[in-house]
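FIELD: query
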Amino acid sequence: MSERTGEHRHAITLTVNGVLREAAVPARRLLSDCLRHDLGLTGTHVGCEHGVCGACTVLLDGEPVRSCLTFAVTVDGHEITTVEGLAERGELSPVQRAFSECHGLQCGFCTPGFLCTVTAFLRDNRTPTDEEVLEAVSGNLCRCTGYQNIIKAVHRAAEIQAEESG
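FIELD: result
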């Protein structure tokens, strides 16, 4: 029970970006709020708070989910990857590098959600068509870029991944 609110807290344990983390959260705490406020991982952005914009997208056991629609208690024991966890050994991931190289971001608010979405998409589809890319990113809204460079970045990320996998 929290002294401040009188609300019961639930102990949860999750692996976030490869690190075992624990938190005590109210039953109604959203995963986005848990990541940002309880665990200090502010890369996950909250836009619409209705699951429409995709800015809050993270990977839950490798699959993209809207963290603003997911209760933190439901991910107890699961693995979460946020935008902070996409880089490996201090190196940007192919998707992150491609977005930078192709100018697939402007203000950056929607970028974490796009990066997580595209990471999962390219894991499952190594050589996407333009139509498949459009479908994959259709759940992520960007108000700045006009999407053309985002589409280019997805294709470039696929190229980088192909080059690196030999």
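FIELD: remark
DSSP finds five helices and five strands in the chain.
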